[in-house]
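> @MW can you paste both from yesterday?
MW: sure, first one:
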Amino acid sequence: MVYDIVGAGIEVHSTLGFGLSEGVYEEALSIELEEMGYECYTQVDLPTYYKGRLMEKRFRLDLVVEDDIVVELKAVEKVLPEHRAQLFNYLRLTKKPIGVLINFGRSLYSEKYIFNEAENTVTFFNAKHTRGAHSLDDFE
């Protein structure tokens, strides 16, 4: 599924090019994934809690695929540490197992991450290797 998400991103980028707003890419990616048969939700409201109490601070997830994968989209020149931190925070708050960061910049760029709830850690993975205890086969 992760590879389909990145593949859909490649299709969107090759069709639309770069330089558009993040919202345009978000909607196009959602359409592309739905055409592939995936269930997608855009602009998902994420409430936050402190000691069981609902806080006023809320986040909005760009895209959630099949209720398992958080997709954070950017349309920037370069991915920065704060973009990754945003995705990491979403994974920790939602407890979703996988996160994908896609940048629709001049060249399409993506990063994939695994969230380990037991250790409260986020680990980078790519097609060639995984860093951590999980096998990439677990996420196909």
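MW: second:
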Amino acid sequence: MLIDQSGAKHHILDCGERLVASKGFVGVGLAEILSVAGVPKGSFYHYFNSKERFGEELLARYMERYLGQLDALLQSDGTPARARLMRYWSYWNVTQCGIAGADCAEPQAGAKCLIVKLSAEVADISETMRLTLRDGTDRVVQRLAQCLQEARVDGSVPCALVADATALTLYELWLGASLLAKLRRDGSPFEHALRSTELLLGPSSI
């Protein structure tokens, strides 16, 4: 497959993301990335001076895409803010489904959540990758807190609810549910998380 110079970097990242989402960062070697992407080692090092730098850029790109998807789910559309927030949780488990074969044809389709997949792994091996994920998840929680603040204003959650603390609690709840779903290989942790989320949000006045 011929790839123009401008698209080569994105192609390597796309193929690497597929592999990393399936096998983890440590489980994927440079030779495998090069083989699947169909590029020589020199092309890889033209864009990334190390595998760690590759991982950092992969995660930074992933987080920007994830935040864009989150913004689309939470954006004001005339529905109560609580409903928009629940829409995010309802779609959460989509990112936990199986990943397709690593042929790079559709790098976004069925992709696993790299936040869940890699957080524990990269925190122990790369400070720059850890910080990339930490800063990205901080931004996720900030967006959730903003939506909760809007929900307090429109009455879809109690006005006494503390937006920042609740946003962090909910995010931690769903991250934990994702890990348990991997262990149990069923959706029961997400079902429990959804019920717990409704309880934490409290009654709506609208």
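> thanks! DSSP finds nine helices and no strands in the chain.
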